[in-house]
């Protein structure tokens, strides 16, 4: 499936005000996108549309070749991996890390009466190993550090082998070491040909993992620039998006930005 998201003229109106304004966006399965923009720009709202959690007020949204409004979203959502701080708050703190990841197979957050199969447990253990969490499988989620909890959320979101992976600020609140460790893992995952299309919201260009390919810049609900990182993540476009003079630099695929 080469095309996984196709938004045409998508707007979301709240209290009479557009919080997304005529957004047109196409995502192919081999692309890894980052969404950047100031507070309140509409980044999370845009992510919720492509997560099939929110319908546009106008325009059309096709996700995994299904049109929102004409598809049962409960069939679509298991194919979409999603991790955000709001979702993390729903995870039971007294559940083991293995169960937090494994329960994603049944779209629940804690173990109840579901019958798990050996294959679920094996897959959860493999995903934990991929995200360097295997040594924490039996710990309870609430006892983990912030960085470990973020990795568990991501492991949970890839447990179902999604066709589209969406992460809302995965590196927020992490210390330098935990951030760099996470960016290495995210970058490694992004560079694998078998990984799904990937979209990550962040506040900082420093948090763009090596291996990401495209950027969507948003301000006031509107797209200010979008395209390959090398073409769209420019000082000029960041200056327009954030409304102050910004200079961006790139070294070996990592970006940094500062006001000038
Ligand atoms: N249900 C709602 N009703 C009214 N306004 C809303 C609603 N949801 C979001 N908004 C507003 O829409 C705008 C965009 O919100 P959104 O959370 O998408 O922005 P964001 O770019 O993710 O912001 P941040 O970087 O601060 O997380 C904000 O001004 C927010 O207050």
TrEMBL record:
Keywords for this protein: ATP-binding, Nucleotide-binding, Transport
UniProt keyword annotation of Iron-sulfur present: no
This protein's record includes keyword Transport: yes
Gene Ontology molecular function, alphabetical: ATP binding; ATP hydrolysis activity
Gene3D superfamilies tied to this protein: P-loop containing nucleotide triphosphate hydrolases
Protein name: ABC transporter ATP-binding protein
Residue span, ABC transporter domain: 5-245
PROSITE patterns referenced in this protein's UniProt entry, alphabetically: ABC_TRANSPORTER_2
Domain of life of the organism encoding this protein: Bacteria
Natural source organism: Orlajensenia leifsoniae
Pfam families documented for this protein: ABC_tran
């Amino acid at each position: 499936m080469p095309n996984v998201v196709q938004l045409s003229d998508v707007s979301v109106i709240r209290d009479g005000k557009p919080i997304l304004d005529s957004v047109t966006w196409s995502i192919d399965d081999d692309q890894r996108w980052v969404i950047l923009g100031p507070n309140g720009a509409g980044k999370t709202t845009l992510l919720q549309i492509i997560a099939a959690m929110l319908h546009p007020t106008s325009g059309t949204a096709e996700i995994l070749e299904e049109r929102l409004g004409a598809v049962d979203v409960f069939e679509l959502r298991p194919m979409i991996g999603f991790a955000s701080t709001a979702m993390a708050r729903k995870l039971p703190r007294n559940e083991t890390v293995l169960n937090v990841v494994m329960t994603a197979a049944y779209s629940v957050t804690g173990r109840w009466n579901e019958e798990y199969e050996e294959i679920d447990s094996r897959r959860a253990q493999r995903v934990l190993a991929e995200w360097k969490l295997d040594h924490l499988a039996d710990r309870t989620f609430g006892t983990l550090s912030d960085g470990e909890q973020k990795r568990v959320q991501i492991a949970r979101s890839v447990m179902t082998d999604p066709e589209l992976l969406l992460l809302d600020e995965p590196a927020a609140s992490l210390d330098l070491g935990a951030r760099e460790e996470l960016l290495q893992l995210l970058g490694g995952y992004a560079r694998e040909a078998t990984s799904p299309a990937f979209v990550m919201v962040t506040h900082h260009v420093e948090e763009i993992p090596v291996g990401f390919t495209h950027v969507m810049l948003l301000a006031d609900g509107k797209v200010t620039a979008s395209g390959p990182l090398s073409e769209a993540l420019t000082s000029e476009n960041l200056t327009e998006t954030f409304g102050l003079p910004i200079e961006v630099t790139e070294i070996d695929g990592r970006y940094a930005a500062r006001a000038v």
